[in-house]
Amino acid sequence: MEVEKYEKWLPKTVFLFTFSQAITNCLFQKTRNNKAETPDFLTLIACV
Fold first, then answer.
1. How many structural domains is the chain composed of?
2. 8 A C-beta contact, residue 26 and residue 47
3. Distance of CA 14 to the CA centre of its chain
4. Closest CA to 39 of 12, 4, 29
5. pLDDT at 19 over 60
6. Could you write out the DSSP letters of every residue in the chain?
7. Cα dihedral sign for 33, 41, 46, 21?
8. Residue 38 has what pLDDT?
9. CA distance to 5, 8, 38, 43, per residue, from 34 (Å)
10. Domain containing 34: what range?
11. What is d(CA 47, CA 25) in angstroms, rounded to the nearest whole number?
């Protein structure tokens, strides 16, 4: 029973983690390139 629960949630967790990591990396790159203090909404849209 426990294994089935893990098989169900693990892919979603991995996907969300990877997705958030990608966005974070993208935001960091864009912010550093623009020399901006904080990433703005448009930067977030550009990452997605």
1. 1
2. yes
3. 11
4. 29
5. yes
6. -HHHHHHHHHHHHHHHHHHHHHHHHHHHHHHHHHT-SS--HHHHHHH-
7. positive
8. 59
9. 44, 40, 10, 10
10. 2-46
11. 9
CB 27 within 8 A of CB 43: yes
Q: How many residues does the chain have?
A: 48
- pTM recorded for the entire structure: 0.51
C-beta pairs of 26-29 under 8 Å, 24+ apart in sequence: none
- Label residues 28-47 b or e (16+ Cβ within 10 Å = b): eebeeeeeeeebeeebeeeb
Using an 8 Å Cβ cutoff, are 39 and 27 in contact? yes
- What's the confidence (pLDDT) of residue 1? 56
Tokens encoding 31: 């912010």
